[in-house]
Amino acid sequence: MVSEGEYTLAVEGGLRVDLGDEEKALESIRAAARREGGFAAVVAPDDATVELAGRVASELGLAGNPPGAARLSRRKDLARARLAAAGVRVPEFRVLDLRRPLDLSGISFPCVVKPVAMSASRGVIRADDDAELAAAVGRVRTIVSGARDEEERSRLLVESFVPGPEVAVEGLLQDGRLEVLAIFDKPDPLDGPFFEESIYVTPSRLGRAAEERIVECVRRAVAAFGLVAGPVHAELRWNAGEAWLLEAAARTIGGECSRLLRFSAGHSLEEVVLAAAMGRRLPHGLDSAAAGVMMLPTPRSGTLRRVEGVLDALGVPGVDEVSISAGTGAELVPLPEGGAYLGYIFARGETPAGVESSLREAAGRLRTVIAPMWRLAPNVGEVSGPEPAA
User: Fold this and answer.
1) pLDDT band at 8, cuts 50/70/90?
2) Up-side HSE of residue 319: CA atoms within 13 Å toward CB?
3) Which of 28, 37, 293, 373 is the most buried (most CB within 10 A)?
4) Is the separation of the CB atoms in 187 and 201 below 8 Å?
């Protein structure tokens, strides 16, 4: 297990690397492979590691994606250009270079400003006119200023807003063949100005014809990137009878959301993905129940005191678990600057509509207590006062 933190996720034998220095990290992994007599598989858990995983796979002769294909899957600006050239339906877009005088003329509205390489909707802002566009660009410029990569600090994507319901596809590539594991509806409208995701429910209620078009769009996208192995998580909009690709990432669904997928013999999504990376195939037909997860949003800035009503929420029929991942005392930062959730609610039931209803009722029984955030004013050592509520 390779990790950047002081403590790796492995109980023993873990390897700590600096992901900000990919060459040094790669050399550390090479050395570890020599010590251990090689590795059985390499899997990237998130966007930050997909390129490194591709390079490791290429050098060690393991199943994986070419590094260039992995890069396309995480760089939204490069991805848009490749997909458009391949004829995949994507929003109209323009790349802004923040190192040069900005020209925002000729952009049609509504539009969406976003970083070229961030996840969880962080830094994604809708603009409906010139003033909102200028404000959004300034705000996202600040958000990306701390990115490690110079291109990711200096480039923004502006694209047309595509209306319609949003869906997600979870898939697994083996030798270039895409197997769809699940299609999720996102029943809450994601119309902006920010795009905080909330509910995922499977199976989809869009119908077979829509699902076929959605899956075909994802197949064309991964082929355009050159992805051939491992997990795929794609986000799309369904608009006017067509699927529009927003993202096709070479990783699994983020956060704890994978826990809503239960496969044959009790296997988790991570077990299925790891087995495939090692050339094995585990039974992974989904069970027949509908399933869903709600990602609990961060309502405003401040310090988390507690989340009340968890036991009450667990009493809602169909709810399996309420997991509060943010700890007491955590600093909360809502979108678009933040990207973390308070926690997750998981539910199962006979129908997607019933699961959605259970999730909403459970969320309605929770109450988040947040205290104002006080900060010391720089250089004077005086308390500056609470930050305004978001």
Assistant:
1) very low
2) 23
3) 293
4) yes
Spatial separation of the C-alpha atoms in residues 172 and 43, rounded to whole Å: 12
> What CA–CA distance (Å, rounded) separates 340 from 197?
11
The burial class, CB within 10 Å (0-12 / 13-18 / 19+), for 197 is: buried
- 8 Å CB contact between 37 and 49: no
Backbone φ and ψ for 291, nearest 5 degrees, come out as -145, 155
- Residue 159 tokens read as 């694209």
Average pLDDT, the chain: 91
Residue-wise pLDDT for 87-136, tens only, equals: 999 999 999 999 999 999 999 999 999 999 998 899 999 999 999 999 99
In DSSP terms, which residues pair with 308 in a beta bridge?
A: 367
The pTM of the full predicted model, rounded to 2 decimals, is 0.90
For 337-353, b where at least 16 C-beta lie within 10 A, e where not — what string? Answer: ebbbbbbbbbbbbeebe
How many Cβ atoms sit within 10 Å of the Cβ of residue 25?
21
pLDDT of residue 182 exceeding 50, the answer is yes
- Kindly report whether the peptide bond that precedes residue 189 is cis, defined as omega within 30 degrees of 0: no
* Topology at the third CATH level for domain 92-160: Dna Ligase; domain 1 (3.30.1490)
Question: Strands 15-16 and 2-3: what pairing?
Answer: parallel
**Two tokens, residue 124:** 């994604």
Question: Could you tell me the residue ranges of all domains in the chain?
Answer: 2-71, 92-160, 295-390
Q: SS3 for 371? A: strand
As a whole number of angstroms, the distance between CA 40 and CA 1 comes to: 12
Q: Do domains 92-160 and 295-390 have the same CATH topology?
A: no
Q: Which CATH class is domain 295-390?
A: alpha beta
**At residue 389, does pLDDT exceed 50?**
no
pLDDT tens for 134-174 read: 999 999 999 999 998 999 999 999 999 999 999 999 999 99
3-state DSSP assignment of residue 24: helix
Distance CA 136, CA 70 (A): 28
